[in-house]
Amino acid sequence: MYWAFRPRGEEPRPVSVLDGGVTRFRHPLLNPHRDDVLLSVASLLGGLLLYFLGLYSQGNRGVLPGWLTLVPLFGMALLELVRRSAPQFALAVGTLLLVADQFTWGNVATAVMFADLVYAAVVYGSARAARRIPVTTGMITLVMTIGFLAYFRKPDALLVGMVTGLITFAPALTGATLRNHRQAAVAARLHAEQTALLAEMDRTQAVVAERARMARELHDMVANNLSAIAIHSTAALSIDTPQTSLQALSVIRENSVQGLAEMRRLIGLLREGDQHDEPAAAPTLDGLDALLAQSRTFGADTGLDFALDDGRPAGLRLPAPVELAAYRIVQESLTNSLKHASPGLVTVALAHSGGTLTVSVTSPYDGSGGDRGPRAPGSGSGLVGMRERVALLDGELTAGPVETGEGEKIWRVRAELPAEDDTEPST
């Protein structure tokens, strides 16, 4: 097995060989990219063509033999093979070869390959090198232009600065521009992925919130009716008399009809926007009288009585979500009173002051609920639903036993809901 080193940025991978256990290594310098090989071969062939045609870039003929021009040419061609895997090393050695080429007859292909090494060092090198190389080459171009112009004092000296800029600063600037565009593309792709992830999270949270809302509505709509049906059906089975059975069946039928109506209203909410189904209006606090009258009917045989203390100012108009939440809190509290309260008076109190609606439901409590005959079992989800409704409106909810001044205990559910008056000002 031997390790095959991948191009820059990739991890090396093991490669199995059937060579009797001989270990071999393939280093990135010995495994150049295919495009780099093609570029190196093409540049070398172009340089050799210029050499044999007698096209040189320097005027040093007669000083040194012409074949020395091929040394920087072949050196640059070899460095092109590692322009990706070792870009900064290639640039450093290439700079020395370019300087050496100035003392030979010169070859344009050598300068062109050096310009490509500058470009590769910016694109494939480290971030620090990508920042420093354009600045350094720009300063070199400026110094060369000013220096030769001051030495020769002729406008032709500007050509030296132009050539220097073309093989150093121009490729460095091009490489920096390409690298910035690549980084911007990567950043945009990451941003798009993060946006898609956040959108999916928002969608999931919206689905969860909608399911929770549907669960609260379903529980609050039918729990009261089904609790009454359970209590009276149990009573009909426990007390086998014609009068009790007739009364239980009457209550069961009434609650069945009301429960069906509530279910239809929930279906209307789910189909909101359908042209064929108009959603029913949501219940408001104006319907508390009917809700308490219904509770009196359900609790006729339990020793419970129900009273409403409405302390809201006349003409008060509250936001629809607050009205619905308050109504559902009272409805669930009355259902719990029918299930668990001791005989006595259940009081529903409403008050509005300082932009806050206070809803309070108190019922007798002795810790056991007393012996009041058949009951419906509780699931505990009603209190959870009330807390969720109050939390959505940034309100506060307390529920639990409270001692009165006479040494007795009551069970109190108290909700404080932020609720500004929605009444339109008169003009």
Order of helices and strands: EEEHHHHHHHHEHEEHEE
Beta strands, count: 8
Q: Helical amount among residues, as a percent range?
A: 55-70%
Task: Return Rg in Å.
Answer: 44 Å
Q: Strand-residue fraction?
A: 5-15%
Q: Report on the biggest sheet.
A: 5 strands, mixed
Biggest sheet, spatial arrangement of strands: 4-5-6-8-7
N- and C-termini, Cα separation: 91 Å
Average predicted confidence as pLDDT: 79
How many separate structural domains? 2
Structural class: alpha/beta
Low-pLDDT stretches are 1-12, 15-23, 369-374
Q: Count of helices? A: 10
What general form does the structure show?
Answer: rod-shaped
Structure description:
This protein has a 5-stranded mixed beta sheet, with helices on one face. The protein has a 3-stranded mixed beta sheet with strand order 2-1-3, with no helix packed on it. A hairpin with a 2-residue loop joins strand 5 (344-353) and strand 6. The longest helix has 81 residues, at 158-238. It is 57% helix and 12% strand. Helix 6 (158-238) packs parallel to helix 9 and helix 9 packs antiparallel against helix 10. The model is unreliable at 1-12, 15-23 and 369-374 (pLDDT under 50). With 427 residues, the chain is an alpha/beta fold. It folds into 2 domains: 2-197, no CATH class; 284-427, Histidine kinase-like ATPase, C-terminal domain (Heat Shock Protein 90).
